[in-house]
Amino acid sequence: MTRNIQDHITEDEFIRFVTEELSKELEIELDRHMEICPNCEEEFVNYYAAEKEFPAEKWEIERAKLVADLRKRVFAPSALDRFRKFLRETFFYQLALPASAFDTKQPVDIESEGSAFGVYIEEDKDNVIIVRLDAKETELAGRKIRLYSSLGDWERVVTLERDKVDSDWVYLELKITREERERLPREATLLAEDAE
Ligand SMILES: [Zn+2]
Fold first, then answer.
1. In this predicted model, what pLDDT tens digit does every residue of 34-86 receive, in sequence order?
2. Which of 98, 106, 119, 152 could form a disulfide with 184 if both were Cys (CB 3.0 to 4.6 A apart)?
3. Which residues touch 137 (CB under 8 Å, ≥6 apart)?
4. What spacing in Å lies between the alpha carbon of 40 and ligand 1's midpoint?
5. How far away, in angstroms, is 78 Cα from ligand 1 center?
């Protein structure tokens, strides 16, 4: 039995997850869903916090570690974890060239809650895409970010550098040329993740 990755985790699945009654395959599928769904991830952590009555012997070392990692990610996420989350949740841009030269795209300008992170993407008249990522987290200086296409064979690794004007910020800037875009399938979208 396989579940749809988009489906939220049910109460029953949460319980069976905690008591380890799920198949390895289904566990992996729930993990995958939590990767893309912060709501279920948070609920999962809350669920663990509330379900202390489960017998200790049922908790394997591996499971305890998973919970500890989850807790850390939800309650005290590092700058990198928060940036990762921002990239995962906000990044969406069609990479392939527009069907018509008259298709002018609106720039993308998104800030995270609290404005610690930002993404700005615009397209110039020659169909060059300019991507800029900003983070008000100087500890991210030197981190490598991988920008890549959801389809086709395109990727670029760019290092976050300290902003010379405002030293509280780090940023990266990248241009994607028309020639690069011409080689990509129509449905290709731009994705980003840390490259560690
Ligand atoms: Zn969910």
1. 888 888 888 887 776 655 555 555 555 556 666 666 666 656 677 888 888 88
2. 152
3. 79, 82, 83, 116, 117, 170
4. 4
5. 22
